[in-house]
Amino acid sequence: MMKQKGFTLLELLVVITLLAVLAVGALVAYDGIGENAESTAAAFNAGSLDRAVRNYRAVEQAYPDQWDNLAQPTSGEAAGGNASSFLADETKDVFGAWNVGAADSAVATAFFNVVNNVWGMEELQHVNTIDPQVTPAKMHNEGSNLGAQETEFTAGEFQYISIVPSVNGLDPATGCQVGSQSVSQSFALAAGTPGATNGIALARRLNAMNDAMGINRCHLVVALGFGGDAASSTSRSSASIVGAPSYSSRTINPANNYSRYIGLFHVARTDDDASAVTISQTDFFPRPKLIGFVDPVGNPIDVNAARARTGN
């Protein structure tokens, strides 16, 4: 009879060791691939949306209508309330609210003139209450969420509108005002959240979103989410926008958090002077415009593109 041969213990150990080395190598090779893919998608989606909105603007001579307000319209808290997770903590740290309803009448008039006559926007979407049965991406849509509210984009229809907070980097402790109302406080700061960004970091982060927003000035930057209703408002145009993309990452879960891309509209700025911390109606640009889109944690296209390459 033929002798049956098997593996020795040493041979088995060698094989197991080789398999372990190969497995570790595979894990190292794929480490961070999920984050890279998310950053790649974010850069692509923000760039595509930016081009689509600018194309629509060129064709229709107006921006799409019915953008999402990240602030509650009467309280100035984060949409859904500061205690809710509708806006992720990272989103609350990047964005805040301006009380345009309480601003000096001349400033409020100048702002709404921009919205109606330059941007061509007529309506604004708000979230007052959270409906757990509605996905966050649809929460601003009145047809999905009974707690959603649509108002005319005119004076007296709402108090607060979402912004990117700003400080003058030459005097960051003072803060900035627009028409007597502060624009230097994020939702997180208003809620007293530990770790919320303030001071010179606010100016640097705003400048990182776009070089036009230098750190040595106060800026009024309106930040509005491009949601489902904004996309559907373009449906009758030859330059219609098919849909509103969503963002996801380790910190933004579309199942729990608002995940739309956010358009930044640069409206006004002060002089390049440490003493200039109040924006008046004379500081408004003749034609304030969209300067770009960021993801819900404030990262512009170039940051996500870099992260897609480096995995950081």
Please describe what this structure looks like.
This protein is an alpha+beta fold and 312 residues long. Helices cover 32% and strands 17% of the residues. The protein contains eight helices and eleven strands. The strands form three sheets. The chain has a six-stranded mixed sheet with strand order 4-3-1-8-9-11. A three-stranded mixed sheet has the order 7-6-10, with no helix packed on it. A two-stranded antiparallel sheet has the order 2-5. A hairpin with a 2-residue loop joins strand 6 and strand 7. Helix 2 packs antiparallel against helix 8.
Topology readout:
Elements: H1 9-30, H2 33-60, E1 67-69, H3 89-94, E2 96-99, H4 105-119, E3 123-127, E4 148-152, E5 160-163, E6 177-178, E7 181-182, H5 187-191, H6 200-209, E8 219-225, H7 228-232, E9 262-269, E10 278-279, E11 284-294, H8 301-310
Helix pairs in contact: 2-8
Spatial arrangement of strands, main beta sheet: 4-3-1-8-9-11
| Rg calc | 24 Å
Put simply, the count of helices is 8
What value does the average pLDDT take? 90
The helix-and-strand class reads alpha+beta
**Span between termini:** 63 Å
Oligomer: single chain
Strand content: 15-25%
Listing every helix as H and every strand as E from the N terminus to the C terminus, the arrangement reads HHEHEHEEEEEHHEHEEEH
Q: Tell me, briefly, the overall form.
A: globular
